[in-house]
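Bit of a strange request maybe. I'm writing a small parser for C-alpha cell strings and I need a real example to test against, not something I typed by hand. Could someone generate the C-alpha cells for this chain?
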Amino acid sequence: MRLTDDQIQVIRQLASQVAGANLCSVRVFGSRLDDAARGGDIDLMLELLKPVDNPALMAAQLSAQVSRVMHGRKVDVLLSAPNLMRLPIHDMVFNEGHLL
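Reply from user aminoacidic:
Good idea to test on real output. This should exercise your parser:
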C-alpha cells in the first residue's frame, strides 16, 4: 500500500473529526493498494455505524481535508452507512480494500 504510517494516522484522525462518534472504520482502495504503481488519487471509504444526515457534505469535507494534508492530491471519498444505498462498488471495497 502506498501510504506511509504517518499519512494513515492523519487520515484516521481527519475521518474521526469529520464523522465524529459515527465513524466505524476507514478503508483505502484502488490504485493506492498497488505498490508497483505511481501517482494516482487516494480512494477512501468510511464505514459508518449510524445514518448520515448529509452524506455529500461529509464526503466533501473529508476529501478536502485529506487533500490539503496530501499536498493537493485528489481524494475520492465513498460512504457506507445504514441509510445509504449499497452499490456494487461497496462490495468491491469490502472485498478488496485495505482497512486503515
